[in-house]
Structure formats: structure tokens, C-alpha cells
Amino acid sequence: MQFKRASGLITLTTDFGLRDPFVGVMKGSIYRRFPTACIVDLTHEILVHWPAEAGFWLRRCSDYFPEGSVHVAVVDPGVGTARQIIAVLSGGFVFLAPDNGLLAPVVDRDPAAVVHALDTARLAQLGVSAASATFHGRDIFAPVAAEIAAGRCDPRSLGPPVTSIVPSWLEEAQQESDRVTGVVVTIDHFGNLITNIDAPLLRSFVEPHVYAGHQVLPLRRTYADATPGGFLALVNSFGVVEIACAEGSAELALGLSRGAPVVVRDAVRHR
Amino acid sequence: MQFKRASGLITLTTDFGLRDPFVGVMKGSIYRRFPTACIVDLTHEILVHWPAEAGFWLRRCSDYFPEGSVHVAVVDPGVGTARQIIAVLSGGFVFLAPDNGLLAPVVDRDPAAVVHALDTARLAQLGVSAASATFHGRDIFAPVAAEIAAGRCDPRSLGPPVTSIVPSWLEEAQQESDRVTGVVVTIDHFGNLITNIDAPLLRSFVEPHVYAGHQVLPLRRTYADATPGGFLALVNSFGVVEIACAEGSAELALGLSRGAPVVVRDAVRHR
Amino acid sequence: MQFKRASGLITLTTDFGLRDPFVGVMKGSIYRRFPTACIVDLTHEILVHWPAEAGFWLRRCSDYFPEGSVHVAVVDPGVGTARQIIAVLSGGFVFLAPDNGLLAPVVDRDPAAVVHALDTARLAQLGVSAASATFHGRDIFAPVAAEIAAGRCDPRSLGPPVTSIVPSWLEEAQQESDRVTGVVVTIDHFGNLITNIDAPLLRSFVEPHVYAGHQVLPLRRTYADATPGGFLALVNSFGVVEIACAEGSAELALGLSRGAPVVVRDAVRHR
């Protein structure tokens, strides 16, 4: 399913944090062109300069928004260099991001995804230019998102189609004969360790057990299935394996962080 | 006064923080059903897994919103268990939260409050179900709030009336012959210590003095009534006793935290 | 250019943080009077009790919003005292803030700026009064901003014109024969050190070099012009000199903070 009709909604995902006025100014730049935009912050606390985390979340969050929404992601250490900006049409949404691997997880899951690179001359026709070399979120992403979300601009018209983009910085989980191997991608506010192991990889497992740090954990359904303070693993609400500590922080209690290896084995086969 | 007409406004109060896309995804889930919703973040920094703080603030903040608003609070360590979700009609508002004590402060102040428990079969009729066992904020609270705020669903129709809910985790301040005893409930961004001592409890006091840590403090009107760095107590803008340090942090300077006892005595009687 | 027609948009700049419900309650107070307001958070992480930072950003951010927007800034250690609240008309915008130096940077740049002090009697006519002595953001700024943004109230009618306001807490950068001297005003989420040295001050320099801490740095165009971990200086997207560490934090790497002196010399003249 491709992009049909703009919903008027724009989501923002950045590593800007909320301490400075950068996110606010991006919104001002959107509203100047599209005063009735509906803007939703997905998160502005992506690990600084790590596009992989933004792509991980966008792939898993985009579908919860109205069809026809525009998802803008700016994690952009190469701002002001020759790196491209791409528009991806996938699943009824438009995604805008620098071509630095950020959108690879979105493109990789959808063989029907259409990718275009933004063309400077075309942007100039829209009155969009790199006024600064360091804040394309405000100068390019915001006005372009506004034009698309307002339904005034077909993203396919923004530049030439692209057949190859920068690959993801994050390896996919590996499926081997008796195990699946992945890593901790991100840690949430509760200290839950969230991995890149998608639930379908465990489909053939009878009794999956998760190995993380010094723990071997059976898969539970929800946090309260362990006693407070106890560790557990589960498939979380975004469909990936997560390691948690009931009413506590798995991050602190296990001492694990981003990149820590996580393995799932089948206890039945394993015996 | 009960809920009459939806204002279209939904407030969100959670312990999700803003680091992850959880709040953003809840908003997406609301906008999918109700694209013209007006969503306001009350706070997402409730102390993790502590519903009492959410209830404390909701009771004191709800009235500042347009009549007919829907106040959603998700601090929910029991998500995915048999705990109920309740809808409370009070003061012209609807409140939605897990039945874990969170809404007790709201219900306790209003003898006319009406409480209903959400019924799974009824939710199914609205197309709402627990798609996940761990994120009911997205899967249940958001779509139900959207239906109510859009004026398409009477909260009383969502399930059977309930006459008893889980009580508050927080004791009310105690009124004794010559004193009122309470605790620090929360600490704000400025380091002000905010107590559960409501101003009406001090009505009969001629010269109230606040005992906190090693300080005895007369009640002042505003922060600038003490010299910078000096301690003071006042009835804050939400009608409760607060201990502050002018242009400083009472939390750091007094070394007090949540749960610290605070006593108010009448200096006149006390003599 | 003065304020002509309200855009319906209100920006908020405070030192309230996002931990407490204070910002949410301000928004509720706005929506009660003006349900279709468009509210944008500029930032709520202004250094506590430091109006200068709010003024620094407002002057440099206001123009990115639709003409006719209302910019509200509440950094207000003197709340509840005799300090005035002022409305400034400048550049097609209205600014509302306590008269504590916050808006001096906005007024100083615009000889055509018009300043009025809010009059208690006039506010009373609008049904606005200081219900509390400690939260004028909710009780005064929010409803007044709502009335102006809704187009129901000319800011010049709110009280008498004022010819003198409290000056800025922040000195302007100094231009000397062979150098420009300024300070670090704020540090962003990335650890970039942002100074008060506006680019036009360097107009006559052939080869500007920035002296900060133990570094002498030529001016670059963007972050990627230094190798990762390397220091650089640039004119940032808000037109002021900034010291950065490519893919790192200049704050941590240089050990500099707010108030640190920064000097720009011309390498050509200097030889």
C-alpha cells in the first residue's frame, strides 16, 4: 500500500532532546506553511548521532498512526555534507530522513517501498533551501513535511527514484539451527532491555528460553508474571523480545546496556 | 456535576517518561479514531509504578481544563493481569485509569462521583481489545478515550457500575487537636517539597508554623518573601502546603524527599 | 512591523521543566478560553530562574513562527511581588513576560517595539486575576495569551505604554579593534557551546579564529568539517558563534560552561 491521501499528521523523531528550542522551531517552521498540521512527537531522545535507534522505532511505531501520515526523522551527524535526504513511501505513509541508514529498517521490510532522493532544484521550486548548514530539520525537513502533509506535494515529485540506500547500522537477529541471536537495541524508561529479536523468529520454538547476562529466563506474558524484583523475558507490545525486572530496572539489575548479546534457545530441543 | 458534553480534549498522565515512543504511539492511537482530538500532556514523569502521585496531581489539576475533558492516567504495574480499568465521572470530567488506587483521591473528594468498570465484551463492540498484554495505554486507554472525547460513547455504557474501588496508597493528612500531620508527596522541578496538607485543614490556625527537617517556618505568601537561599513555607497554587528555598532547592538544602513527615502547628495555641 | 492579526498560535518558554503538571495546566487554562488554540512548547528547560537564557532564545527563534503568534515566557523568580508583566509588540508578534530583563533582547533589537505594562484593573475586566501568588503562568499569562491569540484583545489595550524596562542580565558581545569578546550563553543537548557573538560582528574579519578554553579554532561550515572527536567553531543556524566537538560534546571535552569567555580574532590582521 502506498501513500494515497495526506492525513495532515506529522510525527517527529530526533536526537535533539527537549532542553533547547530546536524541536519547537521545527514545529514553527511546519505551522508557517501548514497552520492546521497535527504534529506528534514520537521521541526526541534518540541516542545522539545513532540513526539505528530511530529506524528501529519508526519501523515498529509507524502503523499506529493514521494512514497518510508523514513520519520525519532527523538524526543527522552528516548535516550539511553531500549526504542525500530521502522520502520513502511504504505502508500508506511517507518517511523523510537523511540517507544514513536510518530508514533501512523501514525499506527492508517492504518490497513495495518506493524511495526518492530530494532534489535541490525541486526544493527550490517549493521555496525550500538549506538556509543553514547545520539545521536541516528546520530549513528542509519541516517545510517539505508540511507540503506533503498538507497534500500539496507528491513525495515522488521531489526528486529521482533511488534503488539503493545506505544500509542499516544494526544487524538483524540471526537465526541458527537451535537458537536465535540478537542484541539489546534500546533501553526504555523503566530499564527494560529491548532487543532486535522479532517474535516470528521463535515460531518453531516449543519452550523458548532467553539468555541475557547471567540469567536464563522463560518467556512470560506480562510483567506481573514475575514476583517484584524478579527477572523475566517476554515478547513486548512491539513484537520483540524484551528482558525486564518486575517493578524494577533490568538495566541496573543485570548491568547490561545497548549492544549486549541476547540468545534465545528452545529448552525442549536443547535437552 | 457529571459529564455532559465531550470537549474533545484528552489529557495524558503516565509514568512512561519521554525517552521512548510510548506516549507518541498512544497519541497516534487516539488520532486514528479521533483525528481532531486535542491532546495535552499533563505529565509523563510520574514516579515509576507509583499511582499515588498521579492521583494526587489529577485531583488538583483536572479543574483547570475545559468541562467535558477526558483525563487518562496510566501508571499500571499490573497491566495484563485481572486488574480492572475504571471510568470515573466527576466534576464534569471523565477519568480513565487502572483500578489500582490511582483514582481514589478523585473519587474520595466527590460524593456524586460515578464509577464504572470497563467490560471486555463491551470494549469488543467498540473494536477495542488487549492486542498486547503490556501496553494497554495504546491498546485500550487510547481508543476508549478517543471514543468518549469524540462524543461517540457514554462512559456509563462501558461496563457495570462499581461501588468499591482500590483505596489510595497515600494517607490523607491527619488533623489532631493542635496540629496537622502530613508528608511530602512530590518534589517539583525547582526542588520545592509539596505536601498532602490541604489549606482548609489550617483554617482555625492563627499563626501556622511548618515543621520540616530541622526547620520551623512561618507561612509566607510567595517565594520572594524570603531572602534568596532562605527557607519558607507557603500554601502553593494548588492549595497545599509547600516548603521552598527562595531561588534554591529545598530538596537539596533540607535533604528531604518523598514521604518525609511535615507538621503544621499553631504558634499562638502552641505558646 | 507590528502585530496585525492573531495567528491563533501561542508558544511557551519556561523554566518549569516537564516533570510536574505545571505546563499541562497552563495549556488547560489556555484551552478553557480558546479551545482551538495551537500551542507550541519552545522549551521548558530554561536554566531555573535565569530569564536571560529565555530572552536569548526568544529573540533568535520568534521569527520562525507564523506572523501574528503570541510568545509567552515565564521565568519569574519574582512572581507575586510588585514586578510588572509586560506585553511587547515587535516584528509582527506579541511577547508576554515578567519585566525582569527577559524581553530586553527582543526590545533592544527593534526600535519600533511597543511595550505596555499589564494593568490589574484591565485584567479584571477580562476576568483575569492573580488567583495564586505563585503561579501567574496559569492564572495570568495563560488567559491573557488566550485572549490575544484568539483575536479578542489588542495587547495595547492591556495597560499603559512603558518607555523603560528592566535591562538584560546578559551583556552584549564587545567589539574591539582586533577582536570580538563574548561568553557562552547556553549549552545544547549535544554539548555545543553557544555564544552571544552574532555573525555580523565578524563581517570585517578575513580569517576569523575562535579562542575558547585551550583551543584556537578556525570557523567551519558544518560539524562534519572536523574529524570525529575534533573541535570546531562555526556560525550556527541561529547566527551566533558556536564551539562544537564533531560527534562529541564540546562541553565535556573542553570543560567549559555558561559564562566562559570566548574571543574571536582575525588571523590575518593578527599576524
Can you offer a commentary on this structure?
3 copies of one chain form a homotrimer. With 271 residues, chain A is an alpha+beta fold. Helices cover 21% and strands 29% of the residues of chain A. Chain A is built from 7 helices and 14 strands. A 7-stranded mixed β-barrel of chain A has the order 8-9-13-12-11-10-14. Chain A has a 6-stranded mixed β-sheet with strand order 2-1-3-5-4-6, with helices on both faces. In chain A, strand 7 and strand 8 form a beta hairpin. Chain A is elongated and about 60 Å long. The N and C termini of chain A lie far apart (44 Å). The model of chain A has no long low-confidence stretch (mean pLDDT 95). At the A-C interface, helix 1 of A face strand 1 and strand 2 of C.
Keywords, please?
homotrimer, 271 residues, alpha+beta, 29% strand
Side-by-side strand order of the widest sheet of chain A? 8-9-13-12-11-10-14
* Oligomeric state: homotrimer
Gyration radius of chain A, to the nearest Å? 20 Å
What profile does the largest beta sheet of chain A have?
A: 7 strands, mixed, barrel
Number of helices of chain A: 7
Topology diagram in text:
Three copies of one chain form a homotrimer.
Chain A (H helix, E strand, L loop, with lengths): L8 E6 L7 H12 L4 E6 L7 H11 L8 E5 L10 E6 L2 E6 L5 H5 L5 E4 L2 H6 L10 H14 L24 E2 L3 E9 L5 E6 L9 E5 L2 E6 L10 E5 L4 E6 L4 H5 L6 E6 H4 L1
Parallel strand pairs in A: 1-2, 1-3, 3-5, 11-12
Antiparallel strand pairs in A: 4-5, 4-6, 7-8, 8-9, 8-14, 9-13, 10-11, 10-14, 12-13
Helix pairs in contact in A: 1-5
